[in-house]
Write a structure and sequence with these properties.
The structure holds two protein chains of two kinds. Chain A has two domains: 148 residues, D-Maltodextrin-Binding Protein, domain 2; 110 residues, D-Maltodextrin-Binding Protein, domain 2, CATH 3.40.190. In chain A, 41% of the residues lie in helices and 24% in strands. Chain A is built from eleven helices and twelve strands. In chain A, strands 1, 2, 3, 4, 5, 6, 7, 8, 9 and 12 form a ten-stranded mixed β-sheet that branches. A two-stranded antiparallel sheet of chain A has the order 10-11. The termini of chain A are far apart. Classes of the chains: A alpha/beta, B mainly alpha.
Chain lengths: 266, 234
């Protein structure tokens, strides 16, 4: 009986190899944790018959996967790393799709008084001065790079017991911050979709420095001949279409919009 | 505590409603791990038995290496398999990366040394006991091997189940070589990791309970089939 049940389960699994073309894309954890992928992927499959398979990794690893030719395209959010990727010839071009923003999350009582800051650098300075616990992604991801850049702009070298570099994805780092009641830099989409907020709250937002642009980069077929160029083009055309715009801008959690579409027509 | 309770009720709800996603990833978990276990049994049992009854120069070294391989972190094996199967790696042309085949390969590498080591231990103990008898009745090497494997079948089953247990709960290696792609390579453990990342602890725990229950089921089925661990027998 049990064997039969297992067999049946295995068999139901088999026909999942769908007829649609497979397309592998490495995306950042922040994009995947936002939940937007679950909305977009079925629509992409229905509209252009492309089965987009997501590899959810940090921007650092996403770029590495692209360099190795293990994915057809990447969707990331770290401008310097993206420019380097294209300069080295691994990507054909960069197409901006949408943006959201980074926010500083912290204990709702805000021991560092970061809430009263006018600028991000000021908030970072206050956290460092108060030596309140701060969790850093520490994984070479887009969010981590933005955080390091903000410390640099604040003329602070983050070190000491209060600075916890966890080397994990956005969700795992948020879990750590929730457990320690610490400050952390996160993207708004991941935060709104995060289910374990505990005593954390947004303590700082709205500085132009915290702008978070997502861009789509197809992997260069000159480096990796097996790339599916036609599918990459189809997907790009869909991502910048009015249809994608409606879906991206319509995606809300608790009545809050997560992403703003800003792709420019060519 | 609340999370554990929420996880249990969620697990119950998923199972009773025959949630299609749950069935899909559970079936894939089993497909990958059972395949890897079968392959590892085919490699590990003969290797372990052979190491127990043969004498050759580097035998000790081989056994030491095998035992050491048991302790390798799966993430290291995952990374090695990734580098080899990557499009830029030596076997890249096969296009196996981010498929269930890659996951089977990684798990086979992880559990083969475990199965071989336990099998070696079991057969060696029995060989010490049978040695004089089997030699005195002038058996061939093949007959000895067969007798030893048959008579230590329960120990060998434990070896196989140990391998299975390690593989079904493994996440580090298959995350790297499988990529946790929805509807393609997502299995129970990688889904748990994903849900934890989203802070959905109830869902993550629910999947964890399903994982424990299915592992338990496999063990019970195996004991039932092989008629071991029953009241009347010791």
């Amino acid at each position: 009986m049990i064997k039969k049940a297992v067999l049946a389960a295995v068999l139901t699994c088999a026909p999942l190899a769908s007829i649609a073309e497979d397309f592998k894309m490495a995306v950042t954890t922040s994009f995947a944790n936002s939940g937007l992928a679950e909305v977009l992927l079925p629509e992409i499959q229905a509209d252009i018959d492309l089965n987009v398979q997501l590899l959810i990794v940090g921007t650092g690893q996403a770029i590495k996967l692209g360099e190795q030719g293990d994915v057809d395209a990447i969707l990331v959010h770290s401008r310097p790393a993206e420019d380097k990727f294209i300069d080295q010839g691994f990507g054909t071009h960069r197409r901006e799709i949408m943006y959201n923003d980074f926010i500083i999350i912290g204990p709702s009582v805000d021991p560092a008084q970061a809430k009263s800051s006018a600028l991000t650098v000021e908030a970072f300075d206050k956290i460092a001065q108060s030596k309140a616990d701060f969790v850093s992604r520490g994984d070479d991801s887009g969010t981590h790079k933005v955080e390091l850049n903000l410390w640099k702009k604040s003329h602070i070298t983050p070190e000491g017991d209060w600075y916890k570099s966890v080397g994990q994805g956005m969700g795992a780092a948020l879990n750590t911050a929730a457990g320690m009641n610490a400050y952390i830099l996160a993207d708004r989409a991941s935060w709104l979709n995060f289910g374990n907020k505990q005593d954390l709250a947004i303590v700082f937002e709205g500085d132009p420095l915290l702008f978070n642009q997502y861009a789509y980069i197809p992997v260069n077929p000159e480096k990796h001949a097996h790339m599916n160029v036609a599918a990459a083009k189809r997907l790009e055309a869909w991502l910048v279409s009015p249809r994608a715009k409606a879906l991206i801008e319509g995606y809300q959690i608790d009545g809050k919009k997560l992403f703003v579409f800003n792709a420019q027509p060519k | 505590m609340n999370d554990i309770w929420a996880g249990l009720t969620q697990a119950g709800r998923l199972i009773i409603s025959l949630d299609p996603t749950l069935i899909e990833i559970t079936a894939r978990s089993f497909k990958v791990t059972l395949t890897a276990t079968l392959l590892s049994v085919a490699i590990g049992l003969p290797l372990g038995a052979w190491l127990a009854i043969s004498r050759f120069r580097f035998r000790r070294l081989v056994i030491a290496v095998m035992n050491a391989l048991m302790g390798l972190p799966p993430v290291v094996i995952g990374l090695m398999v990734y580098v080899i199967l990557s499009r830029s790696g030596p076997l890249g042309v096969l296009g196996l990366l981010f498929t269930t085949s890659a996951m089977v390969i990684a798990q086979t590498i992880i559990i083969s040394p475990i199965i071989a080591s336990v099998a070696h231990q079991v057969v060696r103990d029995l060989w010490a006991e049978y040695h004089d008898l089997l030699i005195s009745i002038n058996t061939s090497r093949w007959q000895r091997t067969r007798t030893l494997i048959w008579d230590s079948k329960r120990g060998l089953m434990t070896a196989s189940l140990t391998g299975f247990g390690r593989a079904i709960g493994e996440v580090g290696a298959i995350m790297i070589v499988g990529g946790n792609i929805e509807h393609a390579t997502r299995v129970l453990t990688t889904a748990i990791s994903l849900e934890t990342g989203r802070g959905n602890f109830a869902m993550a725990l629910a999947l964890g309970f399903v994982l424990i229950a299915s592992a338990l089921l496999v063990n019970l089925v195996m004991h039932h089939i092989s008629r071991t661990e029953r009241g009347s027998r010791w």
